[in-house]
């Protein structure tokens, strides 16, 4: 009986010596903390015959030398710069004068070429960013020009003037400055006699600091004006441009 127990222990020791442990398997096999009632130590042991198999990825060496056994090489020094290619053609100098090109908000054209001749169509965007506007019945004077490449918007009058006949699209957005004052504004098309100006679209808001908008597509004759009129309430202004007016030629 003693001989049998001795042989069993010897065989078990030989088997254990041939096993490869993962970090977790080694902990289970040596501590015995999870044996019998939670996890079997044998489940966390690899029964492979090689040390090249890992349960976890092996640590990569920090540097690699030329001629190393893994076949990878250390990056060498950067080579010399190649030959410079030929120069490209000179660009178009444009049609604006040096003085006018320095103004980022507008573009002026030479006497020989108009915006229409240059193939540009009217497009503008203006906003309120300084002070609220509350002149009821008057044209809204937007104080900030975001873009107006063809200079068709007059910030002093608050009007857009069509430089050529055609179809145009306009949109206006307004936010109440005072929650106790209902807001109402309109986009209007002007004629020679202002009493005949017609309303293209309107928007109103009775809520608390609500934003309302309207948009329209209309045919204009050369020289006709389009503007936003405040009918009731007041318009909010700040740097986030909640109140704006924009349009472009189709």
TrEMBL record:
Residues 117-250 form the C1q domain. Residues 55-99 are annotated as: Disordered. It is found in: Secreted. The keyword Acyltransferase does not apply. SUPFAM superfamilies: TNF-like (SSF49842). Keywords: Secreted. It comes from the Eukaryota. Transmembrane segments: none annotated. Residues 60-71 have a biased composition (Polar residues). It holds the Pfam family C1q. Signal peptide: none annotated. PANTHER family: COLLAGEN IV NC1 DOMAIN-CONTAINING PROTEIN, EMILIN ELASTIN MICROFIBRIL INTERFACE-LOCATED PROTEIN ELASTIN MICROFIBRIL INTERFACER. This is Oidioi.mRNA.OKI2018_I69.chr2.g3984.t1.cds. It comes from Oikopleura dioica. The lineage of its organism: Eukaryota, Metazoa, Chordata, Tunicata, Appendicularia.
